[in-house]
């Protein structure tokens, strides 16, 4: 699943792939925003991302379908 997080006052966004479900990501984002704490997510390569909830501009959760490889006929 592709995740993109827009950071306030930053021209770049945080983008990575994770094996977590869309429901898990949405729950983590909602809890961080409600509590005013930090959002912590992990990608498929084992990296952890910690973003202060106050700095989150948006979170885009991509589709869960696998990417196609090759030609489509």
TrEMBL record:
Pfam families: DUF3107 (PF11305). InterPro entries: DUF3107. This is ATP-binding protein.
């Amino acid at each position: 699943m592709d995740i993109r997080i827009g950071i306030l006052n930053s021209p770049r966004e945080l983008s990575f792939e994770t094996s977590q479900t869309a429901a898990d990501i949405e729950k983590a984002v909602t809890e961080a925003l409600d509590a005013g704490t930090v959002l912590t997510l992990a990608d498929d390569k084992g990296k952890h991302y910690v973003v202060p909830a106050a700095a989150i501009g948006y979170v885009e959760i991509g589709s869960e379908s696998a990417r196609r490889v090759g030609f489509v006929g």
